[in-house]
Amino acid sequence: MSSNNIDAILEVKDLLVYYENAIAINNVSLKCPRGKVTGVFGANSAGKSTLMHTISGLILDMRIKEERRGGERITWYGDVLYNGKNITNMKPSDRAKEGLILSPERRQVFPESSTMENIKIGGYLATREEAKKTMEYVFKLFPELINLKNREAGFLSGGEQQMLAIGRALMAQPKLLLLDEPLLGLAPSIEARLAQAIKTINAETGITVVLSEQYARPVFPIIDYGYVLENGSIVLEGTSEELMDNPDVLGAYFGM
Ligand code: ATP
Predict the structure, then answer these.
(1) pTM, full prediction
(2) CB of 214 closer than 6 angstroms to any ligand 1 atom
(3) Which residue minimizes the CA distance to atom 25 of ligand 1?
(4) Does ligand 1 lie within 6 Å of residue 50's CB atom?
């Protein structure tokens, strides 16, 4: 796949992000093809969450919060293009309205609200019909949640909470779904179950997925293209087959 002529729903161009004087993202450029699953892999502190926050726009909120409390200065340079439009300074809520939805790291469900309430909260951007249809889809995708509808989300297992977090993100009618370390801290059997569910969403709905993970192995079967981040820079990229052929990647990110 030549990166010049792909139909990219998302493009990041020459991105630099600084927390005060420390560089977190160092000249990153990437393209995410429409309708595909793109993986971003990297160790702790490689810059995965910073990249996700820049794409979702949450970094704008983070900057405002830091300024208000006299904290560190967050600055960035470069461009984020969504459907060809420059959204670098667009508010995260406006990005969400256009279908760019982030499911953040550590499955931030509302612990004191029930499973059902959490799902309904996700539908704030949806029409009644969309919300109804998506809710049915979420329970079809994750039947594990059916008997947990009235349970407080804080009492769900890690895997169930991640299903709920993905379900809630789907309720917001994403066209591009950003998943920041969706498998973090889950048991291997649940990892495989969730990775497959993410692929099913992509295949059945056509939603483009960009996910970050520390270890590529559990999501390797479902990604179309991957990038490897090291200290804020992209050091490798390729199709899953190309990455699999690289001994450095196998050792560091696939645990093989
Ligand atoms: P993890 O897997 O631990 O979540 P990550 O790949 O998501 O890591 P980031 O959280 O994006 O990495 O961090 C990238 C770099 O930026 C790290 O050096 C981190 O310490 C720094 N960093 C992240 N958030 C902040 C912040 N709010 N203030 C200062 N430095 C930060």
Answers:
(1) 0.93
(2) yes
(3) 19
(4) yes
Ligand 1 centroid to Cα of residue 46, in Å, is 7
**Sign, Cα dihedral of 248, 104, 24, 95:** positive
Residue with tokens 């179950």: 193
Give the tokens for residue 128: 């009644």
Q: Does residue 150's CB lie within 6 angstroms of at least one atom of ligand 1?
A: no
- Across the strands, what pairs with 32? 10
Distance CA 240, CA 181 (A): 18
C-beta of 21 in contact with ligand 1 (< 6 A): no
- Which atom in ligand 1 lies closest to the alpha carbon of residue 62? 27
**pLDDT at site 93:** 94
Domain ranges within the chain, ordered by starting residue: 8-99+174-247
For CA atoms 81, 104, 145, 197, the dihedral sign is positive
pLDDT digits (tens, 9 = 90+) for 104-127: 887 789 999 999 999 999 998 899
3-state secondary structure of 168: helix
42 ligand 1 Cβ < 6 A: yes
Task: Describe the strand order of the beta sheet including 8-19 as a list of residue ranges.
Answer: 22-33, 8-19, 74-82, 85-86
Q: Decide whether any atom of ligand 1 lies within 6 Å of the 47 Cβ.
A: yes
- CATH superfamily of the 8-99+174-247 domain: P-loop containing nucleotide triphosphate hydrolases (3.40.50.300)
